[in-house]
Design goal:
The N and C termini lie far apart (62 Å). With 191 residues, the protein is an all-alpha fold.
């Protein structure tokens, strides 16, 4: 929000002259306008994940090494940077991806196109993502995620059906606790 617009005499406010160099929203507007940035703006861009990503995407239209540390600190901007700018692995963002369930899975699926060991601990914390990781990434059993998967009737059933393609003893308690999946599971086992 540009607070200078709310004041009757914005030029009398402290920092008015420097606002376009220091206020992130104003720098963002400057980047989107396509105008060249000055040294002070660039200093602020380099340290801000969103601004650094936008600068790479909209101004440089390519990699921005000076801003990669900042970009890599935010999983949202780091993922978009890896996907649209680098079109591949982005080591600077992997710590942020590894700690975020959504991005750990999607980084493995769409960017690495394979296992992402650094993110597997996070992925095992959620039955849906643990199941999807087994099915889509590993394309087989995911022992580290089976305890979590086994806690949810729906994902335990899907894991038995689509990954194991048979009996999943660890998930049977959860599966049989839900009549919707109990019958389907029994049908699967009787094939």
């Amino acid at each position: 929000m540009n607070l200078y617009k709310l004041h009757d005499k914005p030029k009398s406010l402290h920092g008015y002259e420097e606002r376009n160099n220091t206020v992130p929203e104003l720098i963002k507007n400057h980047i989107k306008s396509g105008k060249p940035v000055n040294a002070q703006q660039l200093k602020n861009i380099v340290s801000n994940p969103e601004l650094a990503y936008l600068y790479a995407k909209d101004v440089i239209k390519g990699r921005f090494p000076e801003g990669e540390k900042a970009i890599g600190s935010n999983p949202y901007f780091a993922y978009d940077y890896a996907k649209t700018i680098i079109k591949g692995r982005f080591p600077e963002g992997e710590k942020a991806f590894a700690s975020n369930l959504y991005y750990a899975y999607h980084y493995a699926k769409s960017i690495i196109k394979g296992r992402f060991p650094e993110g597997e601990k996070t992925i095992t914390s959620d039955p849906e993502f643990a199941y999807l990781y087994a099915k889509d990434i590993i394309k087989g059993r995911f022992p580290e995620g089976e305890k979590t998967i086994a806690s949810d009737p729906y994902y335990a059933y899907l894991y038995a059906k689509n990954v194991i393609k048979g009996r999943f003893p660890e998930g049977e308690k959860a599966i049989t606790s839900d009549p919707r999946y109990k019958k389907s599971y029994q049908d699967l086992l009787n094939k």
